[in-house]
Amino acid sequence: MGSPKGGTVSDMTVHPTHDDPVVAALSESVGGPMGSRAGRHRWWTPVRVLLALTAVTFALGLLSKAPCAETEWQDTAQRYSHMCYSDVPYLYSWRGFADLNWPYTDDEAVRAEFDVMEYPAGISYWAWGTGYVTWVLSGAPDLDDPARDLPREGTLYMAVNAVGFGAVALLTTWLMAGVTRRRPWDAAGFALAPMLALTATINWDLLAVVFVAGAVWAWARDRPVLTGVLIGVGTAVKLYPLFLLGAVLVVCLRRRRWRTLALTFAAAAAAWLLANAPALLTGFEQWKVFWTFNSERGADLGSLWLVAQQMMGPDAWIEVDTINLVSWGFMALWCLGVLVLGLKAPVSPRFAQLGFLIVAGFLLVNKVYSPQYVLWLLPLAVLAHPRWRDLLIWQVGEVLYFGAIWFQLGGYLEPGDGQPSVIYWLAVVLRIAAQLWFVAMVVRGVVDPDRDPVGREAEPDPVRGPAGHEARTPAPA
User: Fold this and answer.
1) pLDDT at 383 over 90
2) Given 46, 249, 271, 317, which residue has the most CB atoms within 10 angstroms?
3) Is a pLDDT exceeding 50 seen at residue 8?
């Protein structure tokens, strides 16, 4: 694809040593920023380098799980002291996947023995499918054999899932590198993220991340139907991709693109329904468990609700209905604020900026904020504000919380008098403060487009095709 001056897209690529002050400063130790005469390797393109970096980061994360894998996840103290915990090998047995049970079966014997999978349908399908792969790789053992080595199978199950997670991480990087053609290196913020290494295999959250990255990629390529499909399927995997429809709404209202709005929303609804159909048709009551479980749970780990409840004293209890009402009320006001911000901004905000702000608001007051939930924000944050200083500030807050949560669960932070840990409270607050810092940086880029690192490279306008000037039009009066 030719550039206006006869160059190539590769020639116009924004190099991070020219664009990011932190990277430019670090480059001084290896000869300084990239020069105009620097050669380009014929094989090591930016995307291939990014994929290699993702693979290294993911592999380092797997190495951090080695202490737990060596004990086949049976040492309950070690999983916290070595910070190598994962839900995956435990749920292999606890949810019946070791016995190849369909997660939405209503068989009375199965339901008497195993709890229903508390995650959305997409994760349940994956967990069930990888259970079959594990069974085959284990030599197809007799399911009724009391001598089955379930801890060994659980470790293999973890390995099978890790292979899939690695592929998902690579695909996510590839998609992110293609969102803004001249800025593939922005995806390095994902590829090198410490929290990608630390949290990618704690649970199945990474499966939804690739659909979020795909939706941003599809939107950047003027494909509203594909955007909707990816949001819909992503919502069937984890609820939060649904909030990307808020970004679609703001952009379409701003640009008065009613057909684009209708196509995206309709495609999302149809994709979500089709993805959920196997679960709905085979076990509606089991399918509802995800919704009832999350509606009925109280203040949980990582949330400001838990900190508030513990600070109120050992006998304090914040009613679940109160938490639900306040959380959703806050979320409604937050979304209204994002809508006003998007409509009143000097130029049309980018899709990733709006998506990040909405998802961040949801997490701020969620009833639980697990360490792996950072993955929900990671691709959106990197694309919304690709600045290493601010990314590192945010990631430091997440790393501090990552260490604190495992020490808290292991009992290492509990005071001798049996009171709740103030250190854990501080870790929660610092994590939220770091996230709010990054929110402020994204908002600053929306309010003042000259402070947006992606700058004047406007997104194309779906339906009308690439329209940089349209994307930069002032807010409607």
Assistant:
1) yes
2) 271
3) no
Q: 51 and 29 in one domain?
A: no
Q: Do the Cβ atoms of 437 and 444 come closer than 8 Å?
A: no
Q: pLDDT, tens digit, for every residue of 271-287?
A: 999 999 999 999 999 99
pTM over 0.70: yes
Sequence-separated (6 or more) residues with CB below 8 Å from residue 373 = 205, 302, 363, 366
What gap in Å lies between CA 213 and CA 176, rounded to an integer? 6
Proportion of the chain above pLDDT 70, given as a percent:
87
Domains identified in the chain, total number = 2
Q: Are residues 15 and 65 in the same domain?
A: no
Q: CB neighbours of 384 closer than 8 A, spacing ≥ 6?
A: 350, 352, 353, 355, 356, 357, 442, 445
DSSP 3-state assignment of 465? strand
Token couple for 249: 């709404």
Cα–Cα separations (whole angstroms), residue 313 to 23, 416, 475: 47, 17, 49
> Does a structural domain hold residue 477?
no
Q: Are residues 14 and 98 in the same domain?
A: no
Pick the closest to residue 400 from 430, 360, 366 (CA basis).
430
* Lookup: tokens for 322: 């109160």
Q: How far apart are CA 298 and CA 468, in angstroms?
A: 47
Cross-strand bridge partners of residue 2: 8
pLDDT above 90 (res 181): no
Q: What is the pLDDT of residue 314?
A: 75
Contact 222, 463 (CB under 8 A): yes
DSSP 8: B
What residues form DSSP beta bridges with 274? none
282 falls within a domain: yes
Given a contact cutoff of 8 angstroms between Cβ atoms, the answer to whether 91 and 203 are in contact is no
CA 103, CA 398: separation in Å to the nearest integer? Answer: 32
Residue type, 334: W
Tell me if residue 141 falls in helix, strand or coil.
coil
Cα distance between residue 61 and residue 117, in whole Å: 26
Predicted confidence at residue 14, as pLDDT, reads 75
The answer on pLDDT for 340 being more than 70 is: yes
* Start-end of H helices in 200-257: 206-220, 224-237, 244-255
Task: Identify the pLDDT of residue 44.
Answer: 80
Domain match, 4 and 123 both: no
Asked if residue 201 is part of any domain, the answer here is yes
**Domain, as residue range, for 58:** 41-471
The pLDDT value recorded for residue 20 is 65
Q: Which tokens hold the place of 362?
A: 């949801």
Quick one: pLDDT band at residue 29, thresholds 50, 70, 90? low
Report which secondary-structure segment, H or E, holds 271.
Answer: helix 258-282
At residue 316, the pLDDT reads 81
